[in-house]
Amino acid sequence: MSRSIPKLTNPCQKFIDFKSDKGLFSYYNKETEQAIEIPVPIYFVVLDELATISGYNKKNDCGIYSNEVHRTTDEVLKVKTFKGGESITGLYADVRDSIIALGGKYTKSVYAMLINSDKSVELVNFKFRGAAFSAWMDKKVNPDSSIVGITEFAEEQNGKTVYNVPVFKAFKLTPELNSQALAMDVELQKYLKEYKAQQPEKEVVEAAKVDTIEAVDKWHGERPVLTKQDILSRPAPDNEDDLPFIFTIPIALGIISQFMF
């Protein structure tokens, strides 16, 4: 990326997850290091949908993450654990069993324009997995022509396990909101285009690493929460946009001295 054209960062303002046991949506606030609940009703306009892998690996007691793809049939998934250095690479159909054995779950990554109660809008990302993913796939809503609304949850049961799933409903999409969504999607697609272009380069960087990042999201085990020391001493994972540039003065002087003496 050139100096005059700065590198794009993920434009999402919130990364929203769903907890089926409690029946609530929430996002992680990096500043307060707390999970912030988002009460219903929730209204949003879908901009784009991608697939990713998330979950929890019992062996290494850590979260699982992967890159995001539009088509699992011809785009390779690179699944990794935050600890232990375990990884799986391949088309989803070919590595599905290995992903499940690792503890990974097929997850829908939905980028959307969230409509707040004060009528303001913001770009957010929803992660739907498990029962929430099934509910999303079974929804009776056309996201291309409607606002998607969540006003309630349905209680379901699998054996002795009782859980909640969001109920998706269709609401009228006004021309004004549609225009805002189109403009927001232009920004999103610029980021996704660059994000996908960087994937081969990041694979080269990964191959040269000796260590893996040992950070686990203390809220849901999926988004890494790093301390200041982690950030200063380790490279960033694939789902982070900026790699910290660590080049200390002693190292620099050591390199220069090789040429001077």
Can you tell me about this structure?
The chain is globular. The chain is α+β, with helices and mostly antiparallel strands and about 260 residues long. A hairpin with a 5-residue loop joins strand 8 (about 105-115) and strand 9. It has helices spanning about 90-100, 130-135, 175-210, 230-235, 250-260; strands at about 15-20, 25-30, 35-40, 40-55, 60-65, 75-80, 85-90, 105-115, 120-130, 145-160, 160-170. The relative contact order is 0.17. Helices cover about 25% and strands about 35% of the residues. The protein has 5 helices and 11 strands. Strands 1, 2, 3, 4, 5, 6, 7, 8, 9, 10 and 11 form an 11-stranded mixed beta sheet that branches. The protein starts with 13 loop residues before the first strand and ends with a helix. It has one domain.
Give a nutshell description of this structure.
The chain is built from five helices and eleven strands. The protein has 261 residues and is α+β, with helices and mostly antiparallel strands. The longest helix is centred in the C-terminal third of the chain and has 34 residues, at 175-208.
Summarize the helices and strands and which ones pair or pack.
Blueprint: E1 14-19, E2 24-29, E3 34-38, E4 42-57, E5 62-66, E6 77-81, E7 87-90, H1 92-102, E8 104-115, E9 121-129, H2 130-137, E10 146-158, E11 161-172, H3 175-208, H4 228-233, H5 249-260
Parallel strand pairs: 1-9
Antiparallel strand pairs: 1-2, 2-3, 4-5, 4-8, 4-10, 5-6, 6-7, 8-9, 10-11
